[in-house]
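Hello,

Our lab assistant flagged a job as stuck in the queue for most of the afternoon. It eventually completed. Since we weren't sure the result was trustworthy after the delay, we are filing this so someone can double-check. Below is the sequence as submitted and the structure that was eventually returned. Let us know if re-running is recommended.
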Amino acid sequence: MTSYLISDFQQSTSNFEDVISDSSMQVKLVVLPLQPTANLFVDSCWLNSPIVQIGQTLEFALRIHNSSDKDAENVPVRFFLNGAQKAVTSLSIPAGQKIETTFSFTASESGWQKAAIKIEDHPLNFDDAYYFSFEVKEKMHVMSVSENVSPYLEAMFSKDPFFEFLKSNVNSVDYTNFGRQDLIVLQSLRQISSGLREELKKYLEAGGSVCLFPDSSSDISNLNQFLNEVNADGFSGINENKDQVNDVDLQHALFKDVFDNNKSREGRIDYPTVSKHFDQSNNSKSVRQVLMKLQGGGSFLSLYPYGKGQLYVFSVPLQTGFSNLARHAIFVPILYRMALLTAKPISFSHVIGSDEVVMLNASPPTGDQAFHLINKETNTDIIPSARAIASGLMVDMGNQVQAAGHFNLMNGNQLIATLAFNYDRKESEMIFYDETMIQEKMETLKLKNWSYFNASTPDLKKTLLDLNNGISLWKYAIFSALVCLLLEILLIRFWKTA
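-- returned structure --
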C-alpha cells in the first residue's frame, strides 16, 4: 500500500517526531512548490492588571510579529472595545522581529467586555485580529469563616459597596459558596474541622485566596494539621517579646500603591508594632515567601502557594492585645489587595483546536437546560459540556469552535461569561522544510519506507497517477499495430513482383 502526503511542510505544524512508521506502507511526501509569502500577525495580548474596576485606568500590552524577510513600515494598529474603535497607533517592525506596545483605557461600565486588536496585512489575513475578553468587576466577594467575626473585618468590608461580605459561622459553613469567593478569611477559630480542611484545599487548588489569622484560643496542633496539609509552616507557640515590623517586600503586588514612595526610599514608613506573636516552625515542604518581617527575624505575614491559589498567614490575631495591626493604616489596603489579587481569572483568550477547558464561578444549568455558546455574527450556537466541581464549574468546549471571535456563554437568557477564541498562532510562522531538511529528518528518524517527491510539475494529478500506476503504454502499442497494418496493406497493393 502506498500513501501520499501532500503538504507545504510548514515547520510549526509538521511533527516528524510524532510519526509512527508502518513498514507495510510506502509513504511518499509530495512537497508543494512554495510561493514567497510575507506575514505580519498579532502574536499575543495581555492585561497589565489582575483585576479591572470601573473608573480605573488600565493598560494592556500586545506583541506583533513580522515573520517576513522585509521590514514593515508604519503598520496601523487599532484597538476596538465592544465594537467601537477606541485607539489607533502605527508601528514599524523590522524583518523577523517582534515589537511590543501598549494601549491605555478607562473602564466606564461593569460586566463583560469584548476587545480586539486589528492590523491590515495581505495576502494572509486570518491572523490579523486578536480577540480577547475581560470582566469589569461590579463586586468582589469576601467570606469570613469564624466563631466570632472581628468587628474590624466587618467594618472594613461590609461598608464598602464594592465588596459583598459574607459572614459564616465555622459550625455551619455552606461550602457551595466557596466557588464564588475572591477571598476567604479564617479568624477567631479554635479548630478547623476535617471537612473544612478538605474544602479549603479544593478552593486553594482551584485558584482561591485564603488569609489565616491565628487566635489566642486556637488549638495549635489542629491549625498545624491544616497548615501541614497545604505545605505551609506551622505555629510553635506564642512569643511574648515585643517586636516591630521593619522589613516589607515592596516589590510584591500586594503592596503596590500602599506606601508613599518617598517615605519608602527614605525608610520613614510607620510599620505595625507587636506586643506578642506566634512563632512559626519550619516545614520542609513549604515554599514560603516572607512579605512582612519582624525586627527579631520572625515572619509577620507569609505567603504560601498551593495548587493555583495562595495562602496568606499572619503571625498575630486580630486581637488588639497582640499588635496594632487591626487599627493600623496598612490593614485595610492589605486585605483589599488580597481580595483583588485572587488567582482565579477566566482565561483572557482561548486557542481554537486546543480543546480547552474553562473554569467558571457559576452554577450549572438546572433540569433540561444546557449552556449555549453563541456568536450572532457567524450564526453559531454550540452546546458545550458542563460539570460542577467543588470550586465552581468546569465547561468543556470539545473543539466545537471553528472560527475566531467573541462568544457569549448563555444559561437561558442569563450571560455567564464572554469568551474570546483565536486561531493558533503556530500557523502564522511562514517557515517551511526544504528538500534537504526533509531528507535529513527521514534519515535521522529511520523512515526507510518514506520517499521525497517534489511537486513542481504543472499537472500534479497526472504526475501522481503516473507515479502510482506507471506510464500506460497500451495506447502506443495500438498505434504501432495500426501503423504496421497500414504498411502491410500498402505493400500488398503496390508491391510488384518481378
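-- support follow-up --
The delay was a queue issue, not a problem with the job. The result is valid. The mean pLDDT is 82. The longest helix spans residues 474-494.
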